[in-house]
Specification:
With 447 residues, the protein is α+β, with helices and mostly antiparallel strands. The protein has 2 domains: 228 residues, 3-Layer(aba) Sandwich (D-Maltodextrin-Binding Protein, domain 2), CATH 3.40.190; 180 residues, 3-Layer(aba) Sandwich (D-Maltodextrin-Binding Protein, domain 2). It contains 18 helices and 15 strands. A 5-stranded mixed beta sheet has the order 2-1-3-13-7, with helices on one face. Strands 8-12-15 form a 3-stranded mixed beta sheet, sandwiched between helices. The chain has a 3-stranded antiparallel beta sheet with strand order 10-9-11. Helix 3 links the parallel strand 1 and strand 2. Helix 2 crosses helix 7, helix 3 packs across helix 14 and helix 10 packs antiparallel against helix 11. It is globular and about 65 Å long.
């Protein structure tokens, strides 16, 4: 670490202010309540804009992601093609490392950064996750790139607030994803006598039982630990509501509260309807199980749309979707974004990459392939399929909260502890131990 633990703690506190300011959100295009991002928005918007050379800086730009396979790689390929079109003098080098939600990639990246071998740019989740790299002095501010892209004229202020720490923006967002989505097979539901989405967790569990009684052995399909963390966070959100859910990250809601205990109990019941999963199981097989009719439900981010499309699954016939029961009107947010590492071999080439990532053309190409929605507000909704259009509408009107599993709500070290608690619970099924482990994790990280 190149910085002190005091600075690290301060950065995390600033990030928490920015997150809570935005998470009350109705209109994603407006400004949030008072917080870190609001105080700094005038600084970031007034930064001198980056001016790329015509055709690009030249040289190689190594880009590190976890988009190595399937529909995710298709999204990266679409973005890469746009980069090569915009900056033909630059040469893109794909440094992708396979592994769902970046579990393998982040370990490799941490080693490279620690050994002063940074890529030209790397993928990270907007929000608290980036504070780890900021505290370690491993990434540079990109205020000039954001200014060149148009700043708050084209990106929602709520999103800029989430990217801003102590007056600086440290990444350029490529998209926005929603984590609290149930993907379901309408034919399986119809055979079980289910005709509408359940209103809350208790109703959903009752529907799970109907599905099981209809002959489906595993109504709910899950993958490895990170997918289980995502499922658990949506149960927390359902049982706590957005305000108390947000309170888990600033200390106003205790991790041993009755609401959390109820969520742990509901989560245990859900697992009773799920398949047996191993830690390394990735997410695409769960989506495949839904459209093939081997399961009724899966909770996954909306990158699932690209997986359905890749398998020629038809919306309305092979799959449908709705918010996790009890979370209607809430948008569980995460965003992929790209950074400028300190010590990058070709920083101007890296900035060219960031310019493509944040451009309207880049966001259109990437998000149509990825299943997400543009971070920019000036990309036409009618360019996208029905699901993405609905997500764009919801992001403008819903209450926004931040994902645990994808680094928006908590930094990596805290997420690691949450993941350990969830993995332990999957084996032991001990509710009291789960609550204790989550409480200890929060206390360890200052809550």
């Amino acid at each position: 670490m190149r910085t002190s633990t005091t600075r690290s703690a301060a950065l995390l506190a600033v990030a928490a202010l920015g997150l809570s300011a935005c998470a009350t959100g109705g209109d994603s295009g407006g400004s949030g309540d008072a917080g870190a991002g609001d105080a700094s928005s005038s600084e970031t918007n007034s930064a001198e804009a980056y001016e790329p050379k015509e055709g690009g800086a030249g040289g190689e730009v190594g880009v590190f992601t976890w988009w190595a396979d399937g529909s995710e790689k298709k999204g990266l390929d679409a973005l890469t093609a746009e980069f090569e079109k915009q900056y033909p003098n630059d040469s893109f080098v794909n440094l992708a490392v396979a592994g769902g939600a970046g579990s393998n990639a982040k370990a490799k990246l941490a080693s490279d950064l620690e050994n002063d071998n940074p890529p030209g740019s790397f993928q990270g989740h907007a929000g608290a996750e980036l504070t780890d790299y900021i505290a370690a002095d491993q990434i540079e501010p990109v205020n000039d790139v954001m200014a060149a892209l148009g700043g708050s004229d084209v990106f929602p202020q709520d999103l800029l607030d989430r990217l801003t720490v102590e007056g600086d923006i440290y990444s350029i967002p490529s998209n926005i994803h929603r984590a609290n989505v149930v993907w379901a097979n309408p034919k399986v539901l119809k055979e079980a006598g289910i005709n509408e989405p359940p209103a809350d967790m208790e109703a959903w569990l009752a529907d799970m039982e109907k599905v099981k009684e209809s002959g489906v052995k595993t109504p709910l399909h899950i993958g490895g630990t990170w997918t289980q963390v995502q499922l658990f966070e949506t149960v927390l959100l359902s049982d706590l509501g957005p305000e108390s859910y947000n309170g888990l990250f600033d200390g106003s809601t205790k991790w041993d509260s009755e609401g959390v205990k109820t969520a742990v109990s509901h989560y245990k019941e859900l697992l009773g309807y799920a398949n047996t999963a191993s830690d390394g199981d990735d997410w695409p097989p769960s989506i495949d199980a839904v459209y093939k009719g081997d399961a009724a439900y899966n909770v996954m981010g909306d990158w699932a749309v690209a997986q359905f499309t890749e398998n020629d699954a038809t919306e309305g016939e092979d799959y449908t979707y709705f918010p996790v029961p009890g979370t209607d009107g809430v948008f569980d947010f995460l965003a992929d974004s790209f950074t400028l590492p300190k010590g990058a071999d070709n920083p101007d080439g890296s900035k060219d990459w960031l310019m493509t990532v944040g451009s309207a053309e880049g966001q259109l190409a990437f998000n149509k392939a990825k299943g997400s929605i543009p971070a920019r507000t000036d990309v036409a909704a009618d360019e996208f399929p029905e699901y993405q259009q609905s997500a764009m509408e919801d992001f403008q009107s819903d209450t926004i909260v931040s994902s645990i599993a994808h680094g928006a709500a908590v930094p990596l070290a805290w997420l690691t502890d949450v993941s350990s608690a969830v993995a332990k619970f999957y084996s032991a099924q001990d509710e009291e131990a789960m609550v204790s482990d989550l409480t200890s994790a929060a206390e360890k990280h200052g809550q």
